[in-house]
Design a protein that fits this description.
The chain has 7 helices and 12 strands. A hairpin with a 2-residue loop joins strand 3 and strand 4.
């Protein structure tokens, strides 16, 4: 024979949850009024007895018609309707003035009527318009039409492009643009190159796609050396340059990011380059 019994410790735990008596539970449910379910049923029946008809019948036309006399007679609205003297239902556009709500007014053409606050003497209008006009036209009383005429006359004097003047055979030496970094600013100028310095009809040498890092590198220049050098910085980091020697530790030649620098040199045989931080890409063009 096999017996199966409940663990006494588990049974004790369940019994401990019965922390009040059945009579205590009864009194708690009945409340202070000692109400039973029978009492609740009786109260509901009393409420139902008060509902002698369905609520929907209370909203019928015949029932609502008794309220029609409670409202005033219809009044036709008009643009010139005065303030009402009897009870009517209407609406008005109101504006708040900071203290009270007031009706917004319109003029006889139904345009919104406003009153702008004006300053008698605005501080910024310290001269008259005529004085401003005279100051702009100056003592010569010049107008924009006069300026346009003067510019047209100047343009008429430019009978040829200035570039053709620079290529005139009377100039024995060719001109070149140079740029130099001075105290962090790029200064541009024209330099005269001796006519025997190089053959300007020759194509320049080109070394492109040079990677520049913080580790110094160099590019050799073909003999007899470069006399006109152009370095283009294609990256976003400044490139530090040395000619024929390592990049100087102080005040090195600098080709700023996204710029090009053209300069003359008496026979450069090597270009040294590096960055202070990061990396960039440069190209070197030169005439020898």
């Amino acid at each position: 024979m096999l017996w199966e019994i409940i663990d006494p410790s588990y049974l004790k735990t369940r019994i401990d949850n019965l922390d009040l008596s059945l009579s205590g539970l009864r009194d708690a449910l009945c409340g202070t009024g000692n109400k039973t379910l029978t009492d609740l049923d009786t109260d509901l029946l009393n409420i139902y007895g008060k509902l002698d008809v369905a609520l929907s019948t209370r909203a019928s036309d015949s029932t609502l018609s008794t309220f029609s006399g409670k409202f005033p007679s219809a009044v036709a609205l008009a643009d010139n309707l005065g303030n009402p003297t009897t009870t009517i239902i209407g609406s008005a556009l109101l504006g708040f003035d900071g203290t009270y709500f007031r009706r917004v007014a319109v003029d006889t053409s139904s345009r919104l009527r406003t009153v702008a606050e004006s300053v008698a003497n605005p501080p910024n209008l310290d001269i008259t318009l005529s004085a401003l006009r005279d100051a702009l036209r100056g003592t010569g009383n010049k107008t924009l039409t006069d300026l346009d005429t003067d510019l047209s006359n100047i343009y008429g004097k430019l009978d040829v492009a200035l570039s053709t003047r620079l290529a005139d055979s009377k100039i024995p030496n060719p001109l070149a643009q140079i740029s130099k970094d001075i105290a962090g600013s790029t200064v541009y100028g024209l330099a005269v190159i001796a006519s025997l310095a190089h053959d300007i009809t020759r194509m320049p040498y080109m070394v492109d796609g040079i990677s520049v890092t913080t580790t110094e590198s160099s590019t050799a220049i073909a003999a007899p050396g470069a006399k006109v050098i152009k370095i283009t910085n294609q990256g976003d980091v400044d490139c530090l340059v040395g000619i024929n020697a390592s990049v100087p530790t102080t005040n090195p030649l600098k080709v700023k990011a996204r710029t090009a620098k053209i300069f003359l040199f008496g026979g450069a045989t090597a270009i040294y380059y590096k960055t202070a931080s990061g990396s960039t890409t440069i190209s070197i063009e030169y005439f020898n």
